[in-house]
Structure formats: structure tokens, C-alpha cells
Amino acid sequence: MNTRSIHADHKDLIHDIAYDYYGRRLATCSSDQSVKVWDIGEDNQWVCTASWKTHSGSVWKVTWAHPEFGQILATSSFDRTAIVWEEMIVDNNNGERNQSVWFKRHSFVDSRTSVTDVKFAPKHAGLLLATCSSDGIVRIYEAPDVMNVSQWSVQYEIVCNKACSSLTWNPSLTRLRSPMIAVGSDDTNNSGSKVLIYEYNENHRTWQRVEITHAINDSVHDIAFAPNVGRSYDLLGVATTKDVKILSIAPTVQEPAAQQMGQLTQHNDTNRYDIRIVASFEDHGSQVWRVSWNITGTILASSGDDGTVRLWKANYLENWKNVGVLKGDGCVGLAMSNSTNSDSNSVLNVPNRSHFK
């Protein structure tokens, strides 16, 4: 696997990076209150094409909307807001339309505390945006007119009763499944599972919690559903304070098509899924901060305080194993790196995304 370092020139910690849909653009955000957008050129070099200050506090997360809706970013911040940005091509001083400018389209100010994560829904759900906050509330917004991303309204509020650190939409491509969201919590003052799963009930037009049998009690820093390209079950990657966990979420019964399309019955919905922890790894030997799946949902990448990115893949027996380690200096190996780069706050080691297909 090839890696390439990017001197990001952020002035503080980089909290998140996000590829766009095609893997040809990157967005980064930082405690320096700024966001940067990077484009890869014909020489395969990443070039910063936009940089701007976004918030009045640390920017925790950045995410891309599906390109069908345009070049749109959303950011979330310690300043209790989330913001939607749209890229427009404008005339430069010579009258040529080749200058990229990112405009603030909408600011979400409903949260009373830090907005810890923000994610766009899968394309087939429409232009929806979910945020979660330290106040324990997940808010789902909708842009009724996809051609005007300046107008948004709150559609749902999910009260989680514990501080939320991260969220993820189930990106399943089938329309026969109800929308599903998983939420991670880092609330040390609240006992119980730190992974919360919610499913949309079309009959009641509410989001209902799906209980998990095996509770995860360690604080969760990140959570990610795997893309599903044919499995009969879903996979959920979880980054906790001490390990990486992979959950399997399988329907327990084959329901009629009308019910599969979101019209859930009124029985105890906790029986609808068999949720199991299928893998747990403590190889990082430290806190794990991020998890991310490849485009086919077959490889999970995790990053931790040990300065490495570790890759996990299941064999034909569905046994998950470590298949690679990327060290902080860009080297590839199987040994844990015990050293840290003092300049790691402003340098990105970016793998060639083609290796993740």
C-alpha cells in the first residue's frame, strides 16, 4: 500500500478528514477553527484548493454530501453549531470562471452544547443531515428543496439520555429496509451501553431504539456502519477507549415486504435483530479514535494513540484478522510503532484510495 504525506499547515490538532464520493477530494478540519479542501491533480499530488475559518471553536467533524446534490460540506464544532457549506465557481479578476469559493448556506443553532458529529444520510433518503451533541440529542434536518441548501428544518429529535460522541447512518443501498442510525456515547457519568441503535418506524413516524444484547460499556469515540453489497446482515465498527469492536446486526425473521419498507409491527421491536460482537481487538494498546470502512464494506481501518492505522478483514470463515499496519511515518508493517512524530498535528499520511476497493 502506497502512502503520501501532506503538509496540511493547520495550526492545531487535525480532528477529522473526509474523502468525497469519488475519492478525488479531501476535506480536513482542526482545532484552529478552519477547514481545508484538497484536490488530487493529474500528477497524483494533493493540492489545497480552499481554506477558510468556519467556527469560533474547535471543528470536530467534516463530511461530504452525495455529489448528486452538488459540492456540499457540513461541519460540526465545539461552538455548539453545525454549518452547511456549498462550493460555487465564480469569476476571477480576469473574468474567467475558474475560481472555487465555499459559501456558508445554513447554520444549525439548536444544540445547547458541543456538536460532536454530523453526517449526511444515504442519497436515496434525500438531502437529510443528522447531528449529535453532548446534550444527548440527535437531530435530523431536511432540505425540502435540494436546489436550495439554505433552507433546512428539524424533522426529528432523538433523545439518547447520554452524551453523544459520534453517529453513523446505515448506508444500505436497498430501499426495502427501514432507515437506521447508530450513535456512540462517551458519557462517563451514565452507565449502560455506549452504543445506541435506532430504526425509523414509518407507522408511528418516530425513531425507535433497537436494544443490543451485548452492551459496550467503554466510552465510544467513533462508530461506522459498513457499506452492504449483498450481505444478509449489517456490520458496525466501533472505536472505544481501549479496543476496536465489530458488531453484526442480522434480522431475526423475514418480514413481509410492506413491513420491510418501514411499516414496523407494534410488537417488541427488540426481537427483530440478532446483534452480536463478532470481533474485538486491543492491538492498538491505547485509545482508538477513528474507524472507517472501504467502499465494499470488507476492510475496516482503525486509528489510535499508538500512531498507527490498522486494517481488519474477515476470511472465508468470517474470522476477523489484522491484515496490515500503517505507521505514523508512512511505513507499512506489522509491528507497533512506539514513536510519535512531533509534527503529526499538521501532517497527513494519506493512503491511495484505490487500495481500499
TrEMBL record:
This is Nucleoporin SEH1. Keywords: Cell cycle, Cell division, Lysosome, Mitosis, Nucleus, Protein transport, Repeat, Transport, WD repeat. It comes from the Eukaryota. Signal peptide: none annotated. Coiled coil: none annotated. InterPro entries: Sec13/Seh1_fam, WD40/YVTN_repeat-like_dom_sf, WD40_PAC1, WD40_repeat_CS, WD40_repeat_dom_sf, WD40_rpt. One of its GO terms (molecular function) is structural molecule activity. Its main location: other. One of its GO terms (cellular component) is nuclear pore outer ring. It is found in: Lysosome; Nucleus envelope. Gene3D superfamilies: YVTN repeat-like/Quinoprotein amine dehydrogenase (2.130.10.10). It comes from Medioppia subpectinata.
